[in-house]
Amino acid sequence: MNDKITNWTSADDAMVENAIRRGATRRDLLQMLLAGGIAAAAGGAIFGRASAAFAATPVSGGSLKAAGWSSSTADTLDPAKASLSTDYVRCCAFYNRLSFLDKNGVTQMELAESIESADAKVWTVKLRKGVTFHSGKTLSSADVVYSLKRHLDPAVGSKVNAIAKQMTGFKAVDPLTVEITLVNPNADLPTILAIHHFMIIADGTTDFSKANGTGAFVCETFQPGVRSVAVKNKNYWKQGGPHLDSFEFFGIEDDSARVNALMSGDIQLAASINPRSMRLLDGQTGVTLSKTTSGNYTDLNMRLDMNPGSNKDFVTGVKYLLNREAIQKSALRGLAEIGNDQPVPPSSIYHNADLKPKAFDPEKAKFHFQKSGLFGQSIPVVASDAATSSIDMAMVLQQAGADIGMKFDVQRVPSDGYWSNYWLKAPMHFGNINPRPTPDILFSLLYSSDAPWNESQYKSAKFDSMLIEARGSLDQAKRKAIYGEMQVMIAEDAGTAIPAYISNVDAISSKLHGLEANPLGGMMGYAFAEYVWLDA
Amino acid sequence: MNRHVLYLVFGRVLVALVTLLIVSFTVFAATSMLPGDVAQILLGQAATPEAVAGLRAAMHLNDPAILRFVRWLAGLATGDLGISYANNMPIADLIGSRLGNSLKLAAATTLFSVPIALTLGITAAMLRGSLYDRIVTIISIGVISVPEFMVATSAVLIFAVYLKWLPALAFANEIHSFGQMLRVFAMPVITLSFVISAQMIRMTRAAVIETLNTPYVEMALLKGASRRRMVLKHALPNALGPIVNAVALSLSYLLGGVIIVETIFNYPGIAKLMVDAVATRDLPLIQTCAMIFCVVYLLLITIADIIAIMSNPRLR
């Protein structure tokens, strides 16, 4: 008789700790533990650790070395152009936003004292007093107007140009008040301003070889594609300021090199660990894992305006044929939450939990395929490494299809150029969508009739009018109800199958504390540098 | 003799310049054929048609390709390498420190591997057929066959992760003393030496054996010359041509071909810079990197040729 637990990993620890924080009862936990074949005794140790993490008090000082997973010569300190995780981390360290999302997905004020509106169309932003840039200049309304307005200039090449376009009027009312006028009412503006690209820079800035922001760290060195060194901002406006004295950040693209660097102690944080490396890290003392499930997902898109997606039965058949559990367990190695074919993730306050994911049902799928008249034909599916795990997902689908006599021809294409050549274009292909803070952004980007990335060419007049109605409403309960219904419409009618929301796992040294999950993404929504501390 | 060599060098440089021009044009044409341009890549998923069109106009990407090529070439002629599309920094600044890093790593590897490889190659040829020769042959063939990512990753796992003797990453900026340099360079240099030495050992051994089989070496032996004198004085000078060529070819790999070592040790060198440049379709940067690789290659080959000629009395 062997009492030792052999298949318990930190991923399971994280799951249980998470449940404890969410307020799971003792009975819930016991069920969870028993489901994993774990004796009740193991529970005690995890309880102890979850509360220890809360009791710890920050220590000041020390210098942190952290590595992201991507870095290139296109690295930039211009928040408008930020595209890689490395850029987001640096922008969060050097700049501040008007608002940000906390770990519960609720909008909090940062540089703004308040962002208010009576009609959701004209918004008044009141700024904090006494905030200074690294250059010594005091933050004023002119800086905010400049920072926001530049996203409209095509020469800037802003990544959020499409979102910023709805802001048409910018007025500096007085040095600490800005008035923003929108084309149409949008109740989400305070959350939209929490997007990383809307960091506030000093009026007139055009040179981004160094960062001049109001953030917790001052930029000492920045070499694109190599590294950045940040030192503590002594005049930081937030009480307490950052705990670290300095913070070096760079990208290590090779997954095993990143893990090795963490295990050898060269770095204290390795972002976004491949699920394959997790078992290796689990055996190591001195390394802990931090899991975040935000809204990142890989979806299978069937264009409704092309064969075979134009056949509704075919689309429904594919949704039944996707073995979501196999995708979650094997393709994503358990580091995912099962998705219900719509883009609003469980971490969002607007997620419709009543909408159940379609169960894996080959018989039903076969019925629909036969009804569609496409049964027995070979259907091409384009997959690529560019869309995370899409090749594995395609294999899961292909296998399930083979079992019922439906043939899927998986065409594997290179990552390079995938987004411009195949995505949105091929009749049946995979996409990968990064988390967005609000359902409104997701829907208007991906599902409204005029959406630029309407992956399945879903068009519905009812959906469009509901989108506008929810956007202009300041009534929270009403919006939740509308968004809930829209999620059902997408799950049923759109040609996008979303099997799972993919988790991000960061590996950190056990000397590093204070890192919490955040709905905006891994590494605490990229803003960890300001909040973490190192053991002396 | 001097005039002959000067004439030769001049001819070589001229050919090299023409080669460079052809290479730059080829690289430019090939890059233009890649799907997507820098505006699309920079905007990534956010590349709506209007955003791409706006950025293209702002970056002058709508000009005819040949005009951009001529503009870049004219800039190069005046010593201006241009501005990177991806981040608006002067190319010279981007390349400067990274070229230095690459050269440092290449120099350290050369100093370490060339003497070892030549010694092993020559001694193996002298003791041809012996146990020593067989061991050297087996090891060098074995080392050729193991891919460098395997060598590098295993070295990191053993020396950095388990033994914790050496850092897993090569931080070029942390070198302030000779000791630190040894620590930082140890693993990258050994990995690269594995890759390039094997070929040099094999080529050296083959070239020396070939000359040892010639009648004049046999004559030297019959005259009563010592074995050492026979090899070093009679055989080696005649084997030098193929040897330096093998060395030059191996060394040319050290600048552009070390992408795997740069990636695994996160060493900011020029090979990774070029890969980045291709990924972002940053044409001026691709061009400049290609030029540098080409110049170094031509330089090494030309030096090897000149040494070969100088060492051969018949060609002198």
TrEMBL record, chain B:
Taken from the UniProt entry, a GO cellular component term is: plasma membrane
Q: Name one GO biological process term.
A: transmembrane transport
| Boundaries of every ABC transmembrane type-1 domain copy | 99-304
Among its keywords, does the record have Phosphoprotein? no
The record's annotation in Pfam families points to: BPD_transp_1 (PF00528), BPD_transp_1_N (PF19300)
Q: How does it sit in the membrane?
A: Multi-pass membrane protein
Transmembrane residues, as ranges? 6-30, 106-127, 139-163, 175-196, 239-265, 285-310
**Main location class:** membrane
Q: Where in the cell is it found?
A: Cell membrane
Record keywords, A-Z = Cell membrane, Membrane, Transmembrane, Transmembrane helix, Transport
Which family is annotated? Belongs to the binding-protein-dependent transport system permease family.
Q: Can you name this protein?
A: Peptide/nickel transport system permease protein
Organism the protein comes from: Rhizobium lusitanum
